Amino acid sequence: MDSLLNPDRPPVFCPGCSHDRSVHTLDRALKEMGLKGSDVVIVSDIGCSGLFDTFFKTHAFHGLHGRALTYAAGIKLAQPHLKVIVTMGDGGLGIGGAHFLAACRRNLDISLLVLNNFNFGMTGGQFSCTTPEHASVASSFLNLLEKPFDVCNVAACAGAPFVARSSVYRKNLPELLAEAISFKGFAVVDLWGGCPARYMKKNPLSPKEIESAIEKLQPYQGVISTNIRREYSSHYREEAAKDTAGVDWQGIEKTFEPTVKERREVVFLGSAGQRVITGGGLLGRAAILAGMNVTQKNDYNITVMRGPSVTEVIVSPQAITYTEVGKPDVIVALSEEGVRKCWGLFQKMEKEGRVILAAGVEIPTTDAEVLEVNFKAGGIKKKERALAALSLLAQTGDPVTLEMLREAISQSFHGKRLEEARLVLEKAATIPV
Amino acid sequence: MSLLFIDGNQAVAMGAIHSGCRFFAAYPITPASNLLSAMLDTLPSAGGIALQGEDEIASIGYCLGASMAGMKVMTATSGPGLSLYSENISFAIAGEIPIVIVNIMRQGPSTGSATRGADGDVQFMRWGCSGGLPVIVLAPADVSDCFTLTVHAFNLAEQYRCPVIIASNKEIGMTSGTLDMERVEKPAVIDRTLHEAGPFLPFQVKIGEDVPPFLPIGGPILVRQTSSTHGPDGYITTNPSEIQAGVERLQRKIDSNMESFSYFDLEKREGARTLLVAYGITAGAARAAAAELSENQNIPVSLLVLKTLWPVSEQVLQAAAMGMERILVVEMNLGQYVQEIRRVICNQRVDFYGKMSGQLISPKEIIEEVTRG
Asked: To the nearest whole angstrom, how far is the Cα of B33 from the nearest Cα of chain A?
């Protein structure tokens, strides 16, 4: 195959720059693999590594600093046949650390070439996450204070199944790159080289010195057998193919006649764990069975299993424009903390209004009729109280009837949950009030 | 007759699937998390891909890669995540990458309140990127809009090769409502224009047009994408006239076509001297207030509900404001979009009413504000 170098845009690196060697080595690897330009995308990062895509006649994607692996992932998932090669410096690796770890864990078929020259060359030679502690760089003494990280150790630790470290000067580098690119999974190659414009001015670094520095470290030559596992993209498609259920966007058919002529506002004031929001949802579904419009607005703390839980359900044969409850027709008061959260609502109620009050819960004075219910004596558990209260409300037929509620329950629940819900309705019918 | 009972975020998911979105990535954040859930539930079985990114930057990055590889893509977040999207939104503008970004706004600033709604990002969505080029922002007012405007958002993103932001709110995204799918407006789906024949340059527009035809990365013809300032060939340019022509085109392709996607509802009432202007969740309260005032209190009030927030449609605003003694802008923030309205309607009285307390603005408050005069 032909070279994939771009004849119109020869490399423009500084004299003596190791990137120049990397460009030609990568081209030799691609050539040896017999790849066409359209088989390959080079996703380049920012800095000198960000120039790589321009030197090749391949698909090219040049984006933001440190984010190259994210674009590469999107491209690979959308076009699985592509050989996706990311060129990134040690700078990009540092700023994009989270993406590097995620890519190692995820194992998409992407090859990452870390063009590691121990500094930010383009911006003036500042220290990066791989600058040795005792190097002299443009970030004053800061690099003295931080431990550089070993790209390969981190990659192997994070789960990358192919990790290799090499000097850019090694003779067999094209073969190593070809192996990395051919590998079906995430492959990291930590390529050590020198930056003559910045780093090497104060930190002379010959090819031999690079080689001996590498030799002192744990060797990484490719496959990490303990990290070998399935490639993400093909695994994803396989799992997705099993997921045939999808989502049921089916509507609720109208099978009852509307029970009310005007807007009704029902508020459940309870606590996390009382299934207040589920109860509100069932009320909504029951009303929709009569073709009425419904909104349900919930309010709860970010603490999932603790704290107040409030749901506001509006039922109306007309369109509902405003979704917050102003003057409730019904309040279901199940817990102190729920009541405290909406203390003022009780005063807004009119005498036609109804409060279904769990025995022992304190509420402010209200003009509405209060129905105190001893759920505990009725054998209704905490998580069943919203539904039990709802069935007491449905006994009045406003805004839904028991038949509508039963139908909503049988459409919403299945199996054991359905049996439990039906049992709650039976128990609620005999509850002392 | 059958009615769906879904929240705004689920309706956005439905709209996305309807539009042909087959790639979604997001990082969990309340109040946008259940949109991530809806897409995870929906996309894989529809042959698509839904991902949970390691952070917001990655999530939008995955989308940009997939979009350039030819897929229709969407991501979703709230204010804190939108902040992290900023640099990639600039990239999507510069690189002309179609993407739909859903911002389910919550109480800010900063971490704010995860489970309380607000409309505090309205100027941020417009100006929160480097370069200051226009973005399209659509604001649904209810569950039905969430479906319809999502389809519009995809159509605009594809047609103009740009990011389109859906400005939703916790109070829309996580509040369930009834939806009659037979009556919901379903715009025809538009796909991006593909390059057909002849030599391909990735950012070359045809004569008389402002949007370059698209080819995907991964096809037989080589495609370049770059966040750097580029010419039609997708290579860096330092030529000032080429740079200027490039940014002017990016501005022109949105601004010169904006009237075709300035969505709004205007309730004009005979004898009205006040125009209420609202958007998003506050539109519902404004609608109720306008109806109450006009029908029961003999104070006719007109109402303009804006569904395209950016670019600002001067035509729509001026036409609605014509002859009005007072324009009252109601927003769930401390006064953001009112600045645009004051800019456009300079010779009429423009008042503001708003709050950002986590509570909805009620019809009663609006009525008081109107009758106060």
From this structure: 13
